[in-house]
Design goal:
Elements lengths: L1 H14 L11 H19 L33
Keywords: Membrane, Transmembrane, Transmembrane helix
């Protein structure tokens, strides 16, 4: 019985398939680094969008989604 298990272990060891990586190991960190660099460039390119328009005064009621633009200045911060 032990002989059967020993033979099975030898056969299993011989049948083990060793797969190689399709690319050299150094390529994977370079791909990830390039992708992160691309994300950084996209982030930096959109970082100045808030400065395109003139700043407007904030309405006193922060929960008001559409402030009344016709209040003649009574409700704006001074």
């Amino acid at each position: 019985m032990l002989n059967f298990y020993a033979d099975a272990a030898v056969l299993a060891g011989e049948a083990a398939v060793h797969n190689e990586l399709p690319l050299p190991a150094i390529v994977y960190p370079l791909i990830v680094g390039g992708f992160l660099l691309l994300l950084m460039i996209v982030t930096v390119s959109f970082s100045n969008l808030g400065h395109r328009h003139q700043a407007t005064r904030e309405h006193l009621d922060p929960h008001k989604q559409h402030p009344n633009k016709h209040d003649h200045g009574e409700a704006t911060r001074r």
